[in-house]
């Protein structure tokens, strides 16, 4: 925990858009639901759990890994298949 706080403290003063997180931090973070690794998505500025299809926001450089803050990723392929059946 102390290492995480130190990494966040160093990054907070580093400028940038406040959405990205340091690589060292993303290497140790895991999904709170699946306990699998997360990947950082630059396009959405969020951490993504491919294991469960959920993205978690990064606010002011701090990832919010509270399960209720996660959002399900849209499955475009599954959605288009459902639309074609209607």
From TrEMBL:
This is Protein preY, mitochondrial. It comes from Eragrostis curvula. It comes from the Eukaryota. Residues 68-86 have a biased composition (Basic and acidic residues). Gene3D superfamilies: 2.20.25.10. Residues 1-20, 67-86 are annotated as: Disordered. PANTHER family: PROTEIN PREY, MITOCHONDRIAL (PTHR33505:SF4), ZGC:162634 (PTHR33505). Belongs to the PREY family.
């Amino acid at each position: 925990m102390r290492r995480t706080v130190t990494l966040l403290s160093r990054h907070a003063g580093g400028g940038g858009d406040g959405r990205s997180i340091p690589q060292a931090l993303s290497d140790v973070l895991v999904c709170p639901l699946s306990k699998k690794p997360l990947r950082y998505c630059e396009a959405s500025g969020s951490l993504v759990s491919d294991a469960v299809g959920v993205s978690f926001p990064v606010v002011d450089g701090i990832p919010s890994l509270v399960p209720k803050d996660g959002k399900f990723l849209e499955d475009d392929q599954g959605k288009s298949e459902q639309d074609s059946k209607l």
